[in-house]
Amino acid sequence: MPFPERDPKERIRDFGEVALGFTEENAIREAQRCLGCKRTPSSKICIDGCPVEIDIPGFIKAIREGDFEKAINIIKDRNSLPAICGRVCPWEKQCEAFCVLGRRFEPVSIGRLERFVADWEHKRGLQIPKLPPKNGKKVAVVGSGPAGLTAAAELAKMGYEVTIFEALHAPGGVLIYGIPEFRLPKSIVEAEVRYVEGLGVRIVTDVVIGKTLTVDELLESFQAVFIASGAGLPLWLGIPGESLNGIYSANEFLTRVNLMKAYRFPDYDTPIKLGKVAVTIGGGNVAMDCARTALRLGVEKSIVVYRRSEDEMPARREEILRAKEEGVEFLFLTNPKRFLGDEKGWVRKVECLRMELGEPDASGRRRPIAKPGSEFLIDADTVIVAIGQAPNPLIPKTTPGLKTRKDGTILVDPKGRTSKPRVFAGGDITTGDATVIEAIGAGRRVAMEIHSFLSLGQPWPEL
Amino acid sequence: MHEILCAKTLCLGIKLFEVSAPLIAKKAEAGEFVILRVDEKGERIPLTIVDWSRAKGTITIVFQEVGRSTKKLGRLKEGDMIQNLVGPLGNPLENRFYGTTVCVAGGVGIGAIFPIARAYRASGNKVITIIGARNKDLLFFEEELKAMSDELYITTDDGSKGTKGFVTDVLGNLLQSLRVDLVYAVGPVLMMKTVAEVTKPYGIKTIASLNPIMIDGTGMCGSCRVIVGGRMRFTCVDGPDFDAHEVDFENLLARNRRFLEEEALAMKDDPN
User: Fold this and answer.
1) Contact A193, A304 (CB under 8 A)
2) What residues of B are in contact with residue A392 (Cβ under 8 Å)?
3) Which residue, of B89, B113, B130, is where some domain finishes?
């Protein structure tokens, strides 16, 4: 079914959403393609690909019947943020990859159908379900990103009194500072946050756990703490010239534009500076976001430099395609060696090396190896380093008894329990940078474990 | 929302605000800073916590109205609200007995040196404070710093008060005859760079409180990155205090200039 997108030449002139939704008619027609498969032990279907196991055939059947209310209730039984997932989930690697129809034809557009129902509900107005009486127990959640918001919502629906502590001045985490407006409108994030608040969750912004308050202090007033502080520490290349002016981490670049609305400077006070040629280093969704944002901010050329080939790029195919349509250029099998600047300290060129693919590394992908003597220069007056994020060390540093792994992630058992009694963790802070839906899945699972712990009072394991 | 309980003009273009911030006041220590945003469209800017009252639940900030955001802040009055205020950020001052400490501050840094001098004094150090400004109209906190220091020296570029010259001239003279165990510098980047150059031949431990451009203040963006000892450090989580002999001040100077064009544009747009 046609799922319209805005014309590339038109859409790069603003930050409006690129993917337009299904019409009701087209949504129902698409829903009619679904075979209504049943889950069996022997064959995998869509539900098996969903990190939160939404009853996909169930909600699609409800769409077919025109009962969108029923559809959204089925989805929300498992996923509290469907308007967001229906935009950013890599459904082609998840539910749609398991679609039985997809074995021979195009899979059912499950992600887009989820978005259709979620948007319908937004237009209708999010309704707060009937809540159980409060059970008198309090849980603190650290971080208002997808994992934190989901855990808080699930716990509130079970009668817990939940407070989320957010370090920034607005809630949403990566949903608000990382993912651009044209992929995830902030009005959607705000509506989802209001829904979570409507469930009775209290969100306190401008509080940095680890500085303003410690985890130990939280444990004095809350029966359990869920750490969902994410992977917000930018990774750097560690090559000469990285501190030249004009070089941004993806986090700084996106935070200025998305959270601080630098694209509306000087109406908004936070500036962003771009030259004529923006080079983004990296191959994930964040890199695509940066390269596409740079175009919208008026650069003449936006180039993505990636050390492996196109097939190995972790970004969603859909986002790579959209980037290409918008005019982003790609230099594959290329890695920067150093940055060269002018006498005023501004970056002017990137010296790159050609790469070739060798044996697979720990991730299973073929390792890029530099071809000696293949150095070449590309012009760049803006560079964005988008090679990944690591967990922010602030909380482990300030929480005695909280064990971390060598990569900085918080050590947890399968139930989300850390080495510190009554402290749970989930999302990117335990896995390293991953997807929104995995964080939502973790938020949901750990919320159940917190509930189990607080109702049954099992002894805390030795980690 | 944080109410401004007290607003004072200290001297030309430099103001002091006492702001309601109970959580921050409870934790604040010398050397730490806050990040604030005046309103919805405002920038996030870092400011040193100059003083705090745990009992009253307030913190004190001192700022100079040099650009769009500080001018916006300066227009607020007692009873007005600062929309966002977060802290305490950064690492607290490494405070212990050293012996003789020299606190050097220039310009609006004179505000930031106050909690430092006080802290060193509380640890039993002899505290010599040197403050400098372009002229006498830009000096402030003289009485407050006199009370915290064993000796206070004042310099002005034009000689309108105290010694004519720079803080580093006075520092250089002092070092010729006095044994000093530690020098702490806060002020314009060029001033801190020169302090480091003056103390280096004597091998005196020298700390600079760096002031790069920041956004989040918690280590997630890298805007505040500086080069110290050849390695990249984040001022907001590794600093703001660093070994001044290891800091690449030239790089910091250049990085602090990276939005000059935009800053000028924003000032043109400013209602004042």
Assistant:
1) no
2) 218-220
3) B89
Do the beta carbons of residue A244 and residue A345 sit within 8 Å? yes
**What is the ipTM score, two decimals?**
0.94
Contacts 24+ apart (CB under 8 A), A211-215: A211/A394, A211/A398, A211/B27, A211/B87, A211/B88, A211/B89, A211/B218, A212/B23, A212/B24, A212/B27, A212/B86, A212/B87, A212/B88, A213/A165, A213/B23, A214/A398, A214/A399, A215/A142, A215/A395, A215/A398, A215/A399, A215/A402, A215/A420, A215/A423
Q: Which residues on B lie below 8 Å from A261 (Cβ)?
A: 41
Please report residues of A whose CB lies closer than 8 A to that of B23.
207, 212-213
**Counting beta carbons within 10 angstroms of the beta carbon of residue A33, is it exposed (0 to 12), middle (13 to 18) or buried (19 or more)?**
middle
* Pairwise CB contact (< 8 Å): A251 & B220: yes
A271 touches chain B (CB under 8 A): yes
A345–B215 CB contact, under 8 Å = no
Does one domain contain both B116 and B104? yes
Number of domains in chain B: 3
Residue A2 confidence (pLDDT): 64
Chain B hits for A240, Cβ within 8 Å? none
**Residue range A14-43, pLDDT digits in tens:** 999 999 899 999 999 999 999 999 988 888
Q: pLDDT at residue A348 above 80?
A: yes
| Contact (Cβ atoms closer than 8 angstroms) between residue A156 and residue A163 | no
Best residue in B27, B49, B75, B218 for a mutation probing chain A (most A CBs within 10 Å):
B218
pTM score > 0.90 for this model? yes
Last residue within a domain, chosen from B185, B206, B227: B206
User: Residue B160 sits in which domain range?
Assistant: 93-206
Specify whether the CB–CB gap between B203 and B181 falls below 8 A: no
